[in-house]
Amino acid sequence: MIVIGADTHKRNHTLVAVDGQTGTLRGQRQIPATDAGSLDALRFAVGLDDERVWAIEDCRHVSSRLEAALMAAGEHVIRVPAGKTMQARKVSRQAGKSDPIDARAVALTVVRDGVDSFPVAFTDEHALEIRVLCDFREQLIAERTRMINRLRWHLVTIAPHIETSIAQAALKGPHVCARVTRQLARLPISPQLRVARRLMRRITEIGREERELLADLKILIQAHTPLLLEQQGCGTVTAAIIIGHTAGARRFSTDAQFARHTGTAPIPASSGNTQRHRLHRGGDRQLNRAIHIIALCRAQWDPQTRAYLDRKLAERKTKLEALRCLKRYIARQIWRLLYSAEPLLTDPTTESSQRTAVGAPGLMPCTG
Predict the structure, then answer these.
(1) Is residue 240 within 8 Å of residue 217, measured between CB atoms?
(2) C-alpha to C-alpha distance for 264 and 250, rounded to whole angstroms
(3) Residue 52: beta bridge partners?
(4) Which of 247, 316, 338, 356 is the most exposed place for a label (fewest CB within 10 A)?
(5) Is residue 119 within 8 Å of 213, Cβ to Cβ?
(6) 216-271 pLDDT, tens per residue?
(7) How far apart, in whole angstroms, are the C-alpha atoms of residue 8 and residue 63?
(8) φ, ψ dihedrals at 20, nearest 5°
(9) Are the CB atoms for 27 and 50 separated by under 8 Å?
């Protein structure tokens, strides 16, 4: 078996194939990030070995087109977190940095940890829609926060009495925005006032767009995994982060793999008579944040969760260790909910018979 590592970019991708047992270099190629380039990548792989695994660094904004083409051709594709490849580069004897070095580091990471340690690539169109809307909503909120800060500084100069009457997060609500807009309309015209009015207009527009996106997200989540919204502590935004960043729960064969992906799987830190686990700082930090929010809400309001934490404290665990245990339990629960709600994931190894020995396998239309 060979492992083909891919270092992906906007305009081209670099492929490096290594032996699946020894890590010996078997070949390398650079391809354009187009449909023709994906076809060239398949020709390159067919000429090396019939049994192969594609290891692609998890940068889906630039690798999604290549992933889709490979999966359409029946190839076995796995995603490698960027943090894992960073570790491989540190222990590599080859100095420097280049696209072939990075692609080889991706492949060697899979050789070192094993193919089964990484989630398979899986395109969940519904999850992708939720992820796109959720990311855009967060960008709008960040833009609104910057505009609110600029508006406040202008108000300090032109109308300090208005600025002091606005609570810290009040401009996020439509009623306060309308009141401030009316107050600004009564002030004498000046350059700073014109800027403040434009900022106020844009803040109001962003608030309206954010509320519309939130309603759209709720509809999509109810169509994807309605049971997720019924979980205590899991609102629309938290559920959107979970679904969007999981990107298909069936690509994780066990809840342990999902927990490692979310950063909720504890890492052994025992020595001698001391038996303990420490915090895992890796994984998807957005997923970890969403699970942390659910854990805090349940710890405060759910009697069963509070009883669970009390039992962990009675076992002489610290509050943080008990909370980590709770987050691991929540990760298992979320994985089961998402896993049961998604359609079956086709095993890539069952489609290996569709590959042709000569020439290039036929490609279905790629989705960029």
Answers:
(1) yes
(2) 18
(3) 2
(4) 316
(5) no
(6) 999 999 998 899 999 989 999 999 999 998 888 888 888 888 998 898 888 887 77
(7) 6
(8) -70, -15
(9) no
Find the mean pLDDT for residues 273-302.
86
**Length of the chain as a residue count:** 368
Of the CA atoms within 13 Å of residue 155, those in its CB half-sphere come to 21
Task: Please answer whether residues 253 and 260 qualify as being in contact, where contact means their C-beta atoms are separated by less than 8 angstroms.
Answer: no
Question: And the tokens for 228?
Answer: 């997720």
Question: What span, in angstroms and rounded, lies between the C-alpha atoms of 51 and 211?
Answer: 50
Q: How confident is the model over 3-28, as pLDDT tens digits?
A: 888 888 888 898 989 888 888 888 88
- The rounded distance, in Å, linking the Cα atoms of 275 and 277 is 7
Three-state secondary structure string covering the chain: CEEEEEEECCCEEEEEEEECCCCCEEEEEEEECCHHHHHHHHHHHHCCCCCEEEEEECCHHHHHHHHHHHHHCCCCEEEECHHHHHHHHHHCCCCCCCHHHHHHHHHHHHHHHCHHHCCECCCCHHHHHHHHHHHHHHHHHHHHHHHHHHHHHHHHHHCHHHHHHCCCCHHHCHHHHHHHHHHHHCCCCCHHHHHHHHHHHHHHHHHHHHHHHHHHHHHHHHHHCHHHHCCCCCCHHHHHHHHHHHCCHHHCCCHHHHHHHHCCCCEECCECCECCEECCCCCCHHHHHHHHHHHHHHHHHCHHHHHHHHHHHHCCCCHHHHHHHHHHHHHHHHHHHHHHHCCCCCCHHHHHHHCCCCCCCCCCCCCC
